[in-house]
Amino acid sequence: MTANRVIAAAVGLAILIALPFVLPDYPLHIAIQMLIWSAICTAWAFMGRFGLVSIGHGAFMGVGAYVSALLWNDYGVTPWLGIPAGALAAALLALVIGFACFHMRIVGHYFALVTLALGQVVALVVIAARDVTGGSLGMTPRSVGYSWYALQFPDRRVFYGVALALWLIVLGIRHWLTHGMRRAAADAVGEDETAAAAAGVDVMREKLRLTMVSAAVTAVGGSIYVQYVSYLNPDTVSGVGVSLQIVFAAIAGGMYSPLGPSVGAFLTLMLTEGLRVEFGTHFIGAANTIYGILLILFIVFMPRGILGLLGRLRTARAAPQPVAGE
């Protein structure tokens, strides 16, 4: 990392740390959600950038959210233990699905369809188990007021710090996954599994590692999101709509860039809030429709996302221009 990038990162971090002390209440609310969704979308990119396209990450988010919320409501287990339990449950689900798919060599769009079905299955199970989960009406984590034990903070500035820490940790995990031999192995698997296996890469292990880490981090993000909004139902933390939102954000921002999914999360959040403010309850489902249309456009015209396009333009501008007559 160059000196300029280090300085830019330090200035950016300083600004982020100062934001909760200067932002009004509503923009701070948006900033907290943006950080949490940025972490979730970055977790999806762990898989997506190496060719493992999941359209079912709402399943992992839902598992993490419901496990931690139910442990708190029914047994009084602190979210500090419930959130890791939810992450473990999501990782085990990813292990089962991933092992079955990778062992049977289900790849590409077939793997995407399996994950799509998984997301819908989890949402339907939540609805069916309404006596436990509240079904389609959802549930509210039991409130105890300001409490570190319950991870509940009426002061949004405290929760902003939690969300910022989550986002920075996820960026750190991404750095760990995408550097050195780990990246080389994942790149090889993403390019050609047969060639990677011939070169000595354990293809099954690499794909399961990416899938399980991505699922666990997504589950943590879902759990913290529920702790913040203090409400969950199948439509907000699982199902096709949530999965589509995650995929759109990561691709639109640029899943190959560290901050690409965060840019995409900001875009999707602004789109959702704009539609809510403009149309209220008169245009329900508009966001998912727009996500689908924009996702097609980004895949066709900007496959590397917004930051990928900006990087390409910057490279083209910096390239030496040919001398006339040559």
Explain how this protein is built.
The chain has 15 helices and no strands. It is an all-alpha fold and 326 residues long. It has a domain at 23-235. Helix 12 packs parallel to helix 15. The protein starts with a helix and ends in an 8-residue tail after the last helix.
Low-pLDDT sequence parts: none
- How would a textbook summarize the main sheet? none
- Tell the overall outline: globular
Helical residues, percent: over 70%
How do the SSEs run, as a string of H and E? HHHHHHHHHHHHHHH
Number of strands: 0
How many helices does DSSP assign? 15
How much strand content do the residues show? Answer: under 5%
Structural class: mainly alpha
Mean model confidence by pLDDT: 87
Distance between the termini: 36 Å
Task: From the alpha carbons, calculate the radius of gyration and give it in angstroms.
Answer: 20 Å
